[in-house]
Every structure is written in structure tokens, then in C-alpha cells.
Design a protein that fits this description.
There is one protein chain. By secondary structure, the chain is an alpha/beta fold. It has 3 domains: 7-68, PUA domain (Archaeosine Trna-guanine Transglycosylase, Chain: A, domain 4), CATH 2.30.130.10; 76-176, 2-Layer Sandwich (Transcription Regulator spoIIAA); 201-390, Vaccinia Virus protein VP39 (Rossmann fold), CATH 3.40.50.150. Helices cover 29% and strands 28% of the residues. It contains 10 helices and 19 strands. Helix 2 crosses helix 4 and helix 5 packs parallel to helix 6.
């Protein structure tokens, strides 16, 4: 039954099946008009005025972020159960010799807007949107004891977008400016205060493992390499030469230190602070060739309107990379743009291959690993596409 202290709102569109199947968003135009402060508990009613879901009010186009798809309280006890279930999943799916991974994956763990990553003895919390932000004290309270059971006694909050990000130590010992974590036994340096995302791109863990398995004896080019995770993996896999390219010099400095942390030969790793399209043109002019190229750019499509331009950018990137690839060489292409579907990305890859006159074998397709779960009813959560090909 609805509680007296919650907002009640009726569906205006016939979305009962979508809600019951677990889709975590209700847009404003799907609901009867209502007013609620961000973070207020909302009971969603069907036409018969039965409660079919509860969620938190938000202030954008997404009006309600759904936490439960039935008549069940949305309270601290629910938060505790969801966090415990998410942690139990990680205990089963995170591989050995790995102490950096995602603990809470927002909608994928039925905690919309709540992301928490572990980095050894530290955790980083990110809250997406005012609804989740309004519940920050309650989320932190429920997280604290369960993090402590993992041996994590420090929590950092990251907020804001990209270049306007801010960091705040919520409790515990602040992380060092340069923290060394372990992934499949590989050591990586991370800056939890200012690094992208929460410090590292944890969703590429298994792709890095694949690169390590492939790289023996190869000349490798890692584009948009950030702090060099793919590069270190290639080095540990026995690559004869690795070049890491990124526009950010501080990220490349971390890549160099990670290389040394793994006792790799410093003469076989080169870093290049450059704009990727310009560098690719220069490499083509010099007739450089590589046997493994990794291209994992930032999102080219931050919104639906930018999708056509994004697909052109992906096509151009693929064509330029494939032109530098040796016969029989490997190309690992990735997209983190949620507005670009797997079919869209495949189409850009086909067109890039056509323009570069290359025939490609698809060896493997992958997405984010099991610590980044996706709801079946929420295809919007399937943001990461990775395609490994051979020319």
C-alpha cells in the first residue's frame, strides 16, 4: 500500500510491462503531472491505482528512477539488501589477483545513479543526478559497514562532469596521489583524485587480458591510451615494442610509471602526447606499420543528436588504423558511446575496412565484464562495445 509520506503518480502511457520487467527509468511525459523534490520517494500507480513500482523523483527528462518494480518499501533496508547482493556477486565473479573493480553499477545493480568502485583499500563513490545525490548520507551509511567487511575503510566521493570534477574524502585515510592496484596480477598506477571516471577504466579489464594473451612479439600502438592499461598488458604479454598515445601528458606519465612498476624494459615503451587523427596521418606518411592497434576513444556521441557525426568519426578512425596494420595484424576497436549500438559500430567498422581496402576477420566481441552487470530490460545500459579483428 502507498505510504502517506510519499508522492503518488499515475502512468499516462501503457508502460506497466516495461516497469514490471525491470526498466529503471520513467520519463516525465509517461506520467501524469506531479511535483516533487529530487530524492522524494514516488509510488507509481497503474490505471487501477495499484502500486507497481517505487523510485526516487528526479528533476530532468527522467522523472522517476525506479528501485523496486512492485509494492515494496524504498528505504534503508532495501539499500542494505541491494548493496549486499551486489557485493556477493563480485565475490563470485571478480578474478584472482585483482583488487580494483566495480562494486556497485547503478541501474545494473538496481541502484539507479549509484556507482562505487574499489581500488585496493580505498573505494570511490559517484552519484549520477540529484535523486541519488539527495540520498548520499543514507547510501554512505549503508555502504560503510559492508565496505569495512571487505577491508575497505576509506571512501572518496567524485562529483561533477569531466573537467569540472571535484573530489571529497568522506571518511578514512585519503588515497595517495598515485595508488598502485592489481589487475590479473598486473600492476597499474591510478590517481583517484583527478583521474577519469573514478581513476581507471575498470570496464576494460578483460579486454586488457585478451591483449596480453595476443601481444607476444608484436609491435603495438595504443591510441587514446590514457594511463596505459592496454600498453602494460601488451608489455607483459611479450610485445617487442609498445607506443602509448594520449593528449594528456599526466596520464602518459602514469603509464610510464606503471610500465616500470611491472619491471618491463623501459626502452621498449614509448609515449606520445598528441592528437590522434593528426598522429595517424603522420604515421601514414612515414609508412609506419603495427601488428596490433588498440583504439579506445572517449565517447564520440554524448547525446542522440551527435550520433551521425560520431559514426563518421568512428569510420575515419577505423580506416586510419587499418591502413597502418600489417597483413595478419590485429585491430581492437572499442566504443563507450551508449547512443551508438553494436550494429551501428559494426557498420562503421565495415565502412572503415572498405575505405582502407582491408578484409577483416572478427575474432571476438565483448562488452563490460560481470562486475558491470546490465539489466535485460535496460538495453541503454549496454554502453561498451569491443570488437577484436584480424586483417
Amino acid at each position: 500500500m502507498p505510504r502517506a509520506d510519499e508522492i503518488r503518480v499515475r502512468l499516462r502511457k501503457p508502460l506497466e510491462r516495461s516497469v514490471r520487467s525491470g526498466h529503471p527509468w520513467l520519463y516525465r511525459d509517461a506520467l501524469e503531472p506531479f511535483a516533487a523534490a529530487p530524492g522524494a520517494v514516488v509510488a507509481v500507480l497503474d490505471k487501477a491505482r495499484r502500486v507497481i513500482a517505487r523510485g526516487l523523483a528526479d528533476d530532468g527528462p527522467i522523472a522517476v528512477r525506479i528501485f523496486v518494480a512492485r509494492d515494496e518499501p524504498l528505504d534503508d533496508a532495501l539499500l542494505a539488501r541491494r548493496i549486499a547482493a551486489a557485493f556477493a556477486l563480485r565475490a563470485r565473479v571478480v578474478p584472482p589477483a585483482t583488487d580494483a573493480y566495480r562494486l556497485l553499477h547503478g541501474e545494473g545493480d538496481r541502484l539507479p545513479g549509484v556507482v562505487c568502485d574499489r581500488y585496493a583499500a580505498h573505494a570511490v563513490l559517484k552519484l549520477d543526478g540529484p535523486a541519488a545525490t539527495a540520498w548520499q548520507p543514507r547510501i554512505v551509511e549503508q555502504l560503510r559497514a559492508q565496505l569495512a567487511a571487505l577491508g575497505v575503510h576509506a571512501l572518496l566521493l567524485r562529483s561533477g562532469k569531466k573537467h569540472a570534477q571535484q573530489s571529497e574524502q568522506l571518511y578514512g585515510e585519503p588515497p595517495a596521489e598515485e595508488l598502485v592496484i592489481e589487475e590479473h596480477g598486473m600492476k597499474l598506477c591510478a590517481n583517484l583524485w583527478r583521474g577519469q571516471k573514478t581513476g581507471l577504466f575498470l570496464d576494460h579489464r578483460e579486454s586488457r587480458r585478451r591483449v596480453r594473451a595476443l601481444a607476444s612479439g608484436l609491435r603495438v600502438l595504443n591510441l587514446y591510451g590514457y594511463t596505459g592499461g592496454f600498453s602494460i598488458a601488451a608489455g607483459l604479454g611479450g610485445a617487442r615494442e609498445v607506443t602509448t598515445v594520449d593528449s594528456a601528458a599526466p596520464a602518459l606519465a602514469l603509464a610510464e610509471r606503471s610500465w616500470l612498476q611491472n619491471a618491463l624494459d623501459p626502452t621498449s615503451h614509448h609515449t606520445c602526447a598528441a592528437d590522434v587523427p593528426e598522429l595517424l596521418a603522420q604515421l601514414a606518411q612515414r609508412r609506419e606499420r603495427f601488428e596490433l592497434i588498440i583504439a579506445d576513444p572517449p565517447s564520440f556521441a554524448p547525446n542522440a543528436q551527435s550520433k551521425p557525426a560520431a559514426l563518421q568519426s568512428y569510420t575515419a578512425l577505423h580506416a586510419s588504423c587499418l591502413a597502418l596494420l600489417t597483413e595478419g595484424g590485429y585491430y581492437l576497436a572499442a566504443s563507450c558511446s551508449s547512443h551508438v549500438t553494436a550494429e551501428d559500430f559494426d557498420a562503421s567498422l565495415r565502412e572503415g575496412a572498405r575505405q582502407s581496402r582491408r578484409v577483416l576477420q572478427i575474432l571476438e566481441r565483448s562488452t563490460a565484464p560481470a562486475d558491470h552487470p546490465r539489466l535485460l530490460a535496460f538495453p541503454e545500459g549496454d554502453y561498451l562495445k569491443v570488437v577484436l579483428t584480424r586483417a
